[in-house]
Design a protein that fits this description.
Elements (H helix, E strand, L loop, with lengths): L4 H12 L12 E7 L4 E10 L2 E10 L2 H14 L4 H15 L9 H4 L12 H27 L1
Antiparallel strand pairs: 1-2, 2-3
The structure holds zinc ion.
């Protein structure tokens, strides 16, 4: 897979020095997502406080794309209002599904723009999306739980 060198560096940096990779003992929702085609696994714990993503923590194993992508996600979405987090999520998913035809907006995606080139490699898109799907799943669970409280 050939990615732009600068982007490759951002991905490797998150892979080697992952952000928030230590599962928090308190959370509103806990999910486990697997990408069987690559063997990637991610556990993700999420806390939402006052409609804001207050904590995302995770643990996982797998390829550099999957692990870097979830590390980038935790940096990007922590502290965001949930509607804003969903808007960024939608932007990232659209980018991944674009087959390389969409450049993506760096002001929205920040470090996640480094994964743009992955959209040209269909076999790797699930790797990049794994942590994002885990986040979406956890956020739906966390919000339905808060409605019951
Ligand atoms: Zn993978």
């Amino acid at each position: 897979m050939q990615l732009d060198n600068l982007y490759q560096e951002v991905i490797l940096d998150h892979y080697k020095r992952p952000q928030n990779k230590k599962l928090s003992s308190t959370y509103d929702a806990q999910v486990h997502h697997v990408n069987p085609s690559c063997g990637d696994e991610i556990d993700l714990n999420l806390t939402i406080t006052d409609d804001t993503v207050s904590n995302i923590s995770w643990d996982g194993v797998g390829c550099s794309i999957s692990q870097a992508s979830v590390s980038i996600l935790t940096d990007l979405l922590t502290g965001k209002k949930i509607e804003e987090a969903y808007s960024i999520f939608d932007h990232f998913v659209a980018l991944m599904q674009s087959k390389g035809t969409v450049a993506g907006d760096e002001t929205v995606l920040e470090d996640a723009i480094a994964l743009a080139g992955v959209s040209k490699y269909p076999a790797r898109i699930k790797c990049a999306l794994l942590g994002w799907m885990a986040f979406k799943d956890a956020s739906v669970q966390a919000q339905s739980k808060s409605k019951l409280d």
